[in-house]
Amino acid sequence: MKSDPNEIPPNEIPEDLAEKAAVMREFRRLRAAGEPVSAELYAKHIQATNDRYATGPGPGERIQDFVLPDQSGQPRSLRDLAGPNGLFLVFHRSADW
Amino acid sequence: MEMEGVNLAAVSYDSPETLLSFARKHGIGDPLLSDRDSAVIRRFGIFNTNIAPGLRAYGVPHPVEYLVAPDGAVVRKYFVPNYQHRVTGSAVALREFGAADRTAPAITLRSGALTVEVGLAAAKGFAGQQIGFFAKFTLEPGWHIYGAPLPEAYTPTSVAFDDPNVIAQSFDLPPAQPMEIGALGETIPVYSGSFSGTGSLLLKFPIDAGEVALHGQVHFQQCGDSVCEAPETIPFELRLTLQPFLVATPAK
To answer: Residues 60 to 79 of B: which have CB under 8 A from any A CB?
Structure first.
């Protein structure tokens, strides 16, 4: 688990990222307006979002402990979150949209 | 899953305040973790690098779910390569612990010496979800059906959905027992007695909310000590209730 080699500084957005952003903005605009999204745009949006798809550590690999605040602001670590038989850890996009 | 001694936690880039209002709104007691600068998301190597800085989604991970042992080792990971598709807790509970929701739809099919119960892991779901399913087989004594791999002359046992709303699926049976067929001197894999398989199906996205009938087929060939029936296909239908999507409201 090293830091992401593909990370891009904000002032250097490459062309392909700008193209993806245009697709994502158009998709979001149509959805927000309640307008139909064409199958072509839908496919482009999925493709833009899922490019360089990565799923992180695999079975057998060890997860480094971390500490993050929970919804009450309490710091929680992997060790204290786990039950007697472990933890089901879900990464998701946002609870807000 | 808590019943199995496995806790649940979820990570997103939201603030603790956003997570608190989400947890209150939906009655969630499980820890929702705030990875504000996506540092942990980056450390896992799942930071979505397709999203330009400045977009609302900048900082999100590729959606992945890990079953982690108490010592921190990954036991299994679940993912579907489409951000609008989701693995369900019920599908994981079925696969990991053999647990199915009692209110979930199931149907019992019979033919000759074979009884098979096919059912879903959940009664309700959303379009785009991965839903677990199971098949429990029982054969009368003296009868068997076939496993895999098999010579061409025999029909292996399978359970599959044949439905436009199902875009991907898998189904696994336990290892079959080798059986020697006398006259031909062949050894072939067979099932007898009682055994179960589990699988999962991926629902299309989008599908209109409401009840949806999912169509599938059980395919097998049953043989006794002195007689082999012709290969059979039994169709079945399981009804799943698809829930409407929650509409997210912009933060004030």
So the answer is: 60-77, 79
What confidence score (pLDDT) does residue B234 get?
A: 95
ipTM summary value: 0.82
Task: Give the whole-angstrom CA distance, residue A40 versus residue B193.
Answer: 50
Cβ-nearest to A71 among B23, B65, B70: B23
Give the model's pLDDT for residue B245.
Answer: 62
CA torsion B23-A57-B41-A51 (nearest 10°) is: -110
Q: Please name each of the domains of chain B with its CATH number.
A: 2-62 (no CATH), 106-242 (2.60.40.1250)
Q: Is B123 helix (H, G, I), strand (E, B) or coil?
A: coil
Smallest CA-to-CA distance from B68 within A74, A77, A95, A62 is with A62
For B231, the 3-state DSSP assignment is: coil
Tell me whether B246 touches chain A (CB under 8 Å).
no
Q: CA A56 to CA B77: how far, in whole Å?
A: 9
Distance, in Å, from the CA atom of B36 to the CA atom of B19, rounded to the nearest integer, reads: 11
